[in-house]
């Protein structure tokens, strides 16, 4: 078997560097590999701290969007036409605050409309609304339909209280429908499902194969229930180039990488055992100039896994990011499957060894 010889073969003297970037430290998967150390690629010895990223290690976007519009801070210009999804994308903490504020504002608004009844003796005596607190109690009872008590409606009064009551009921039904819809969408989003999908903390370039080297990323599913129509994409983001300017702008070139299996068989993958996604680094590959020719450059590899969750029918997306320091050239993945000692004819997957690598 021929080994590819190139400027990166010196893997035995490859130094190790503890992650010193706060974002990278927060992104280390301590559940599966608590002693994870990010090795430094010999071609790019500067480490993760000096590398640009469009997303964190585990797929959270860390890029910012411009909010300045026509000289003023008008973020609502971009989101006012899609307010429903803007609210759905907020965190649960903020959504709970908005929930309380909106309902209290709704009750206070209609309590102010009920309050003028305190100035009419006939209405005041018929409904027992003497103070603003009584008006607030009436507003809450009408909104929640818990039934009238000491404070109530009466036909002995004028038409005004009933007009306000009908308006509050109509507005309240629409308001409740919107709130319930937002909560249902928020609860049903399959964000939590992505946490059971694990990527190897490092990508490797296997140079021990007959033929061109291969970029490899290993993926595992923790749950026994598999996602339907699961597929993986690899995208290379190259930073730099362009004219530039005093504001420090630069170009970002995004190129999808062709996976080995995508041209031969159906592109859906099966995660009953860990899956290795492979990209052949031949002269037509965008990675050829970095891995084979040894050109220095700032780039980021983004792996995207998508599948359909069979219970809800919603799409689950899991992403992982790799900088040059997290691409181990001249390594391959160590085996992580073995025969189960507890169940006969069963395979046991050691998730703790998902990111284990050995030199080629």
Topology:
Blueprint: E1 16-17, H1 22-27, E2 38-39, E3 68-69, E4 72-73, H2 76-79, H3 83-88, H4 92-114, H5 121-127, H6 132-144, H7 160-188, E5 197-199, E6 203-206, E7 214-221, E8 228-239, E9 252-257, E10 275-280, H8 288-291, E11 298-308, E12 315-322, E13 327-329, E14 331-333, E15 337-339, E16 347-349, E17 357-359
Parallel strand pairs: 6-13
Antiparallel strand pairs: 1-2, 3-4, 5-7, 6-7, 7-10, 8-9, 8-11, 11-12, 14-17, 15-16
Helix pairs in contact: 4-6, 4-7
Please tell me about this protein's structure.
- Helix 4 packs across helix 6 (132-144).
- The chain has helices at residues 22-27, 76-79, 83-88, 92-114, 121-127, 132-144, 160-188, 288-291; strands at 16-17, 38-39, 68-69, 72-73, 197-199, 203-206, 214-221, 228-239, 252-257, 275-280, 298-308, 315-322, 327-329, 331-333, 337-339, 347-349, 357-359.
- By secondary structure, the protein is of the alpha+beta class.
- A hairpin with a 7-residue loop joins strand 15 and strand 16 (347-349).
- The protein contains eight helices and 17 strands.
- Strands 5, 6, 7, 10 and 13 form a five-stranded mixed beta sheet that branches. A four-stranded antiparallel beta sheet has the order 9-8-11-12, with no helix packed on it. A two-stranded antiparallel sheet has the order 1-2.
- It starts with 15 loop residues before the first strand and ends with a strand.
- The longest helix has 29 residues, at 160-188.
- The protein is elongated.
- Helix content is 26%, strand content 22%.
